[in-house]
Input
Amino acid sequence: MTQTITVIRGDGIGPEIMDATLHVLDAMNLGLRYEDADAGLVALEKHGELLPATTLESIQRNRIALKSPLATPVGGGFSSINVELRRKFDLYANVRPATSFPNTRSRFSDGVDLITIRENTEGSYISEGQEVSADGETAVSITRITRKGSDRIVRYAFELARRTGRRKVTIVHKANILKSTSGLFLKIAREVAAEYPDIEANEMIVDNCCMQLVMRPEQFDIIVTTNLFGDIISDLCAGLVGGLGLAPGANIGKDVAIFEAVHGTAPDIAGQGKANPCALLLGAAQMLDHLGKPDEATRLREAIVATLAAGDSLTPDLGGSGNTMAFARAIAARL
Output
């Protein structure tokens, strides 16, 4: 069965890592078809806007998108194209796995295998009520937490744990200080957790969670938390396993899902073939899981791990002297 996905090549190193990723996916003979769509600076140059209506229509039509990093000019349009996409398609669940990989520059060579699930549409990132006083001395912004948003993200975490055989969900909060917003999230999380007696649930204040992640990351399985805390924790977790070059992300909604590399556009190395394609490749593996192809997702992850272990054509950030496409070819050969 043929599946069409919207492909957003992005800015900076985006086109390079997308070409590498599609090369690997093509080697797997999955019946995927690609519909190119523009966003970011390339879209601004071609269409006069950062996120054209044709791109939104493509994502809506195909319901699946694979996205490279995007740059957003300072001071123009909305603050983040990613935030705009999440709002437009109600992509409420941000799913960020962090797994130990061989032959990487990380503190933990093994033992890290966790998923951060971040509420993606409310909290501190709603951009409502933002204002600075006339004298420039005071800034205000609204943080909004809702029962609906909290319930569905925590429920998503427990359902994912049940579906994938994970045994523990850690609810991360700051309800000791933020008694209204974080307090509501924690209250609702406890209610949802009670419906899943087969999954262990524990609670952790966010600052303690960060310390525990650095000291003993093996104690975590799934972390679920609010938008701002999840943003910070997921990058911290990427640092445990070798950096953002190994960090994929999925943005899941009821009708649409967007899969991505979560790192930036790295304009300083764009066009030089130095970019590590692993994050987007791992995002593609998440996409295959979402498409009901878990065996193919496992094949892809195993080929990435085998290539890393062999040190075959590794990119400079991984300590090798290979280039982006050579690394992709090495992975494809193992498939």
Summary: The chain has a mean pLDDT of 94. The chain has two domains: 1-92+246-335, 113-240. The chain is about 40% helix and 20% strand. The longest strand covers residues 93-99.
